[in-house]
Amino acid sequence: MDTLLDALQEGRLFELPENDKTHALQFLAHIIEAFPQIPTGTDIVGNVMAREASMNTALGKGWACPHARLEFEEDLMCVIGWSPTGIDYGSPDGKPISLITMYLVPSNQRNHYLREVSLLAKVISTSPEISKLASLKELNDVRNYLLDLIAASKETAGPDARARMIRLQAKSATVSQPVQDLSNLVVEALEIITSPGQKPLVLTQNQELLSYVEAISSLAEKLESDGFYQNGRWRIIRRNTAVYQGNRIVYDCLAISSK
């Protein structure tokens, strides 16, 4: 389960914005599309959704494992999405899905992917800790839960693997916002507030991102219709939408770009 461990260490664990299966899959696929290793124009969203339409990827016990296969050579990678409320995923055991582990499977990594998913399925089916998943309330609790599962799968591992786990557990105690800890991406929180007859108000700590977003005249419309916007370096992904009195709308977003 090294790829899962890499995802945790590099901050690729996200709280899913909605409990809708389609939106959750699209959200994670958009994040993968923003990886700098992905060729420009690669349709990860379409790839994932087409595979899901042909075969449900729920593993049961609150887990699902969708993937996208690409004909290029790169490392096996994944992103992890957590739903606090659970997602109606059509799981064979009828239980809602709390964790979606979405893999990017390059052509040179298919055997590696099969080994990893086989081990993951074994851990899910045999670990007594799996039942705790539905009771987790915070993202850092999910992170520690996954670390415990990975550690259990590495009981026979050598000292190097155990040392890496110790370093990662120490790091988890100091990371208050895992989503911001990506090693190969810039991820910024972003809020866009729209009001009839007014220019959208953009809230972000990143000056470059602020200038970029304020220059987009149709951003709110694109977020409403497509759930994301990209034209250049930044990819803006809608996480949630809240409607207030006076037809004021707040779009809670992530902005992702490569360094």
Automatic annotation (TrEMBL):
SUPFAM superfamilies: Phoshotransferase/anion transport protein. PANTHER family: NITROGEN REGULATORY PROTEIN (PTHR47738:SF1), PTS SYSTEM FRUCTOSE-LIKE EIIA COMPONENT-RELATED (PTHR47738). GO terms for molecular function: protein kinase activator activity. Keywords: Sugar transport, Transport. The keyword Ribosomal protein does not apply. Pfam families: PTS_EIIA_2. Residues 3-149 form the PTS EIIA type-2 domain. This is PTS sugar transporter subunit IIA. It comes from Gracilinema caldarium.
